[in-house]
Amino acid sequence: MKTGQSPWQHLSTAARRRWPTPGPAGEPPPGFYTRVLSRLSAAPTVSLELWWQMSVRALPVATLIVLLCWFILPVNEWEPDLTEVVMEEALTW
Description:
Elements: H1 7-16, H2 32-42, H3 46-72, H4 82-92
C-alpha cells in the first residue's frame, strides 16, 4: 500500500514522532528482566571452565617454584621469628 510519500518524507515524519514517555525513575524498561533472564540461562559456564584450565596450567609452574625454593633456601640457617617463639611459649606454658 503506497502512501504517496517519498522515502525522505517518510523518514522525516518518523523522526518527528514523539518517543513514548519513560517510566518512573529507577524502574527498568519493559522487558528488561526477561532479557536478563534469557541471557543468564543461555550463557555457558565459561568462567568455571576457564578457572579449571588456568589452575591446571598453573599447577606445574607452582610445583616448580616450590621445588626451587625448597632446594635453594638454606634450611640450617633459618631462624624462627618472634611470632613463632611466642606461639611455642604460649603452647608449652
